């Protein structure tokens, strides 16, 4: 039997064999496309992979990361949904890297491809407006940093429509996440809901973040790994004249004292768009994760009062976050899974932009399901012996998701 098994594993005579993969011919194009935006000198990754000489010592580590789908960072289950900003490798790309490493990781005789041309300037192009914090904020080497709040005037003399927006931390190593709100001139007349009452905001109701009175609507949120917001042609977000930007900053220490002076760049549309984009925040603040709980579920619901188009979802948790899933329940009772992030990663908090906006009929419910691991098996857990609830600090937790949508044409 053993001999038969060995013979069965041998390729039949004449069977074509896959050609050995080389770095220059086969692997470099994959690495340049998916990896070197971060894996190059001066960027956040710990090593450069631009050339064979730089990548070869890391061949086995690269194979481990790509076969585990830990790199490039992309948390979405590939079997659910289609996303415009998907950075994951295809099966063929993973197979190519596997053949290269298992074949001895050769350089190859073909000339290396030209490396990508990168710029350290704005990814959204030259901004029409750049604003920044008025002074650097000192971040210590160790310890917890309380949530910080900064205000930046825009000095805009007329309403503008945001076509693209990019937030550039002064030191991205210590900015875990931040949210930017835009408060127009004049009093904020919104009311904070009373405990227990259904809260509605514009076209949505449900588990929403209560109005942060005096801050205006949320125009952008970023976290580790988030890319700039560039909206489809004909769609934009409104930024009213004289708006004051309010930055809500979550800093984390990294063993070295530094400072941060975040900048924000805007590209404005040349004319008013046909579609106004809005951001609403699903936020379930009423929860307690018991000590030691390995799979604690927290749910939030957003119900749409009008027909809308759904553009993106951005789940957010802290160190105990384990997984996220979003399901759409339509008025006829049918359900569709829109996004599943089975292995949520605190260090890579991404927005998932649908390849095409999803048409959502009035009366539909968006159900967010976040699972938390407060057990000792969670290596990132600060303390599995304590109960954990909502809080701004890293050692506390959040059940929060940014939802970008627009009113459907017939609703408008």
Which regions have little confidence, pLDDT < 50, spanning 5+ residues? 1-16
What's the CATH class label of the largest domain? Answer: Mainly Beta
Shape, per Cα inertia axes? globular
Biggest sheet layout:
6 strands, mixed
In terms of quaternary structure, the protein is: single chain
Question: Gap between N and C termini, in Å?
Answer: 72 Å
Number of domains: 3
Derived from helix and strand composition plus strand pairing, the structural class reads: mainly beta
Work out the strand percent.
25-35%
Overall average pLDDT: 89
Question: From N to C, what is the helix and strand string?
Answer: HHHHHEEEEEEEEEEEEEEEEEEEEEEEE
Helix count, DSSP H or I runs of 4 or more residues:
5
CATH fold assignment of the largest domain = Jelly Rolls
Q: What is the gyration radius calculated from CA atoms?
A: 24 Å
Kindly list the characteristics that best describe this protein.
six-stranded antiparallel beta sheet, 412 residues, 33% strand, 3 domains, Jelly Rolls
């Amino acid at each position: 039997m053993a001999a038969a098994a060995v013979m069965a594993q041998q390729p039949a005579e004449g069977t074509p064999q896959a050609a050995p993969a080389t770095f220059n011919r086969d692997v470099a194009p994959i690495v340049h496309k998916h990896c070197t935006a971060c894996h190059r000198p001066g960027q956040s990754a710990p090593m450069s992979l631009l050339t064979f000489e730089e990548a070869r010592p890391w061949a086995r580590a690269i194979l481990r990361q790509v076969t585990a789908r830990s790199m490039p960072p992309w948390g979405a289950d590939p079997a659910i949904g289609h996303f415009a900003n998907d950075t994951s490798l295809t099966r063929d790309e993973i197979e190519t890297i596997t053949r290269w490493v298992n074949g001895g990781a050769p350089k190859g005789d073909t000339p290396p491809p030209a490396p990508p041309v990168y710029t350290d300037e704005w990814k959204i192009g030259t901004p029409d407006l750049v604003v920044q914090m008025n002074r650097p904020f000192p971040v210590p080497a160790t310890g917890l940093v309380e949530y910080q709040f900064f205000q930046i005037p825009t000095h805009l003399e007329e309403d503008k429509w945001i076509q693209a927006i990019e937030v550039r931390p002064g030191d991205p190593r210590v900015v875990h996440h931040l949210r930017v709100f835009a408060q127009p001139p004049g009093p904020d007349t919104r009311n904070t809901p009373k405990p227990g009452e259904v809260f509605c905001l514009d076209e949505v109701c449900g588990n929403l973040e209560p109005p942060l009175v005096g801050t205006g609507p949320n125009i952008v949120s970023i976290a580790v790994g988030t890319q700039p917001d560039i909206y489809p042609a004909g769609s934009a977000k409104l930024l009213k004249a004289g708006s004051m930007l309010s930055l809500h900053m979550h800093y984390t220490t990294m063993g070295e004292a530094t400072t941060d002076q975040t900048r924000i760049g805007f590209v404005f549309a040349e004319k008013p768009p046909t579609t106004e984009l809005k951001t609403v925040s699903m936020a379930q603040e009423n929860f307690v994760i018991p000590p030691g709980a390995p799979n604690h579920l927290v749910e939030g619901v957003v119900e749409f009062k009008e027909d809308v188009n759904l553009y993106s979802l951005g789940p957010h948790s802290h160190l105990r976050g384990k997984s996220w899933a979003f399901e759409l329940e339509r008025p006829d009772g049918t359900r569709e899974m829109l996004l599943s992030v089975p292995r949520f990663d605190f260090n890579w908090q991404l927005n998932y932009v649908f390849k095409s906006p999803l048409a959502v009929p009035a009366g539909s419910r968006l159900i967010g399901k976040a699972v938390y691991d407060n057990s000792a098996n969670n290596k990132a857990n600060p303390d599995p012996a304590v109960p954990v609830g909502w809080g701004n600090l890293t050692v506390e937790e959040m059940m929060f998701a940014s939802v970008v949508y627009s009113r459907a044409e017939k609703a408008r």
